Structure formats: C-alpha cells, structure tokens
Amino acid sequence: MGQGSESNCWATRKGACKRIAKSQGIDSYRVDSLYFSHASRLSPVSKPIKREPGSRDIPAWEQIGEYSDIIYQRAEGMAKITINRPDVRNAFRPETLAQLQEAFNIARNDDSVGVIIFTGAGSEAFCSGGDVMVRGDDGYIGSDSLGKKGIGRLNVLDLQVQIRRTPKPVIAMVAGWAIGGGHVLHVVCDITVAAENAKFGQTGPMVGSFDGGYGAGLLAAHIGQKKAREIWFMCRQYDANEALEMGLVNTVVPVTELEAETVSWAREMLRHSPLALRLLKAGLNAADDGLAGVQQLAGDATLLFYLTEEGQEGRNAFQEKRPPNFGQFPKRP
Q: Does residue 53 sit within a domain?
C-alpha cells in the first residue's frame, strides 16, 4: 500500500479502509495502527482546548455620567452597573429603576462593551428589593409628576425584561442580601457569581407581595418546581453554598475575591464570539419566554440574514432599481 493509498484511507471511515486493505492483501492490524496513529494527529479530541481563566486584575473603572441612585462604569470591554443605595441595603425606588434602565440601554448600545456586570454597592447587599418606605397602594411612588399624584409604579418588571433582552451576557455579582425583588433581579441575569456572605430568598408573601412572572417561572426553570415553591411559600433564606447546590448561582468565592472572580469570568467570555453569545442567549431565553422569546431569536436571525450577500442583494437591487438576482445563491438542504 503506497503513501497515497494510505492518505486516501484517512478520508474514509475505518471500515472502508479495512475493506480496501483486505482486497490488497494488507494485514488488518497494520491498518488499525495506521488509522489510530493518523486519527490521533488529526482529531481535535486528542488535543483538548485548554481553558485559560481570564485575568483577575481589577480594571481601572471609568465612571460614566452622574446618577443619584446608581454608578455606571466601563473598562476593557466590560460595563459595571451598581445600585448605590447601601443605606437601605440597595433597595430600589422608581428613580433607581429609571437610572438602571438608562444604564443598561447605554451598555447595550456601546459597541465597545461585550459583558455587563450588575451589582450593589458595598458588601452587605446586592439588592433587597423594592423600598417599602415608598410603596403606595398601587406600586412604588416616585418623585415625578405621577408620584406627586400618588400614582405608583412597578417598573422593576420592565427592568427584568430589559436584562433578558439585552443581547450581551449579564453577570450578577452578589455580596450580602439578594432578597425579594433583588433576588428576582439576580435570577434574570445570565450568570451569578456569589460571595460567601450572600443570602438569597423571597419575602413577598410575608409583606403582601409576589412576582408570578420571571420571579416564579424562571426560578422554577433554574432549580425545579418543588424548590421554587418552597422558596416562595416558606420565605426562607439560603446561604451561598445552599444556593450553589440547588443551581441558583454559578460559583461561590470569598467576599474579598468577588470582584476579581467576576471580572475573570467576564474576560473569559470576552474572548468568545459576541455574535455567538448573543444568539446563544436568545436561544436559551426562547425556551422560557414563549412567543416573546421566539421574537427575540427571530430578530437575531434577521440580523444574521442582513449580514449575508443574499440579504444584501435584495437591498442593493432595490437601491439600484433593478430586479434582484437571487438565482445566484444556493438552495441549501
């Protein structure tokens, strides 16, 4: 068997190689050894890609804008959005939510940002939910014209949807309390990195409230129906290791290492294809978000189509006032 014949063998399956070898009177043992020797050189499985964690160095965050209730920072392809109300355990009010929505919108539209980190100021709380001191009869009372009329809002629901729809990975960096509405905010994030002092739980039924949307349904998707019902019906609190065991968080580190670990995860993701991450997020969301999730995935499919020569042919033909030539493109199986 010449070298050319051996090379042709590698382009076929092992069984085909053996049949050819037998017809030429070649020992099957030699075929085995040649096959596996060649396959080991070609197979990517034989040389698995080594995972390289991202650097744990804290970046030089640049503060963008001035806000009363939040801090928005950016560095090295990462945006960091911080609820800055540590005196009330980072509870949110309508002004907080409006500023968070603005910050997430800025991060989404900034093409230098690939990953968003969402956290709370200090080490005592990520977010303790809505500020009950400004809760009215129909929601939370802000300082705007509606608030002056006594009209409340539940615009945290809009923020939840926004985090889900943001086409970039969002990492919740959780130290201390993630309770009530604050717990739901970490649930809707893509990844949760927790400090050892983190505490998780729902308080709604204890204070006459509940979240029957993402707060219940997405929680159940993460950890199962029975455990989700326990969390809501019992209003118990769970430490970081319990949260890790039930699949509620991705990793647990000492509080002194929380930011270093989080930026390491962010940097590792930044090495990957941003378009692939966008489509993966939309695909994973679609399973739980119904038609709204399908709409997001379909929008991303439209984006991909616009980037193709076939999609651009239709646009170009219209602009050039000529019939489109779609016949030049393959009819793929």
A: no
The dihedral built from the CA positions of residue 56, 59, 65 and 71, taken in this order, carries a sign that is: positive
Same-domain check for residues 251 and 143: yes
Q: Which pTM does this prediction carry?
A: 0.81
What b/e sequence results for 140-161 when a residue is b if at least 16 CB atoms lie within 10 Å of its CB, and e otherwise?
A: bbbeeeebeeeebbebbbebbe
Rounded Cα–Cα distance for residues 38 and 45 (Å): 13
Same domain, 228 and 303: no
If asked whether residues 155 and 295 sit together in one domain, one would say no
User: How would you write 148-166 as a 3-class SS string?
Assistant: HCCCCECCHHHHHHHHHHC
Tell me, yes or no, whether 56 lies in a domain.
no
Q: Number of folded domains in the chain?
A: 3
Residue 153's closest CA among 172, 137, 174, 176? 137
Q: Across residues 268-282, what is the average pLDDT?
A: 96
Q: What is the domain range of residue 214? A: 62-270
* Helix-then-strand count for the chain, H and E: 13, 11
Whether 244 contacts 252, CB under 8 Å? yes
**246 and 303 share one domain:** no
Strand-pairing partners, residue 174, are: 194
Report whether pLDDT(18) > 70. no
Q: Which long-range contacts (CB under 8 A, 24 or more apart) does 323-326 make?
A: none
List, for residues 92-114, the tens digit of each pLDDT value. Answer: 999 999 999 999 999 999 999 99
Tens of pLDDT, residue by residue over 211-243, are 999 999 999 999 999 999 999 999 999 999 999
Beta strands in the chain (DSSP E): 62-63, 70-75, 78-83, 115-120, 125-127, 170-174, 177-179, 191-195, 199-201, 237-239, 251-253
Q: Among the listed ranges 23-27, 192-196, 264-268, which one has the minimum average pLDDT value?
A: 23-27
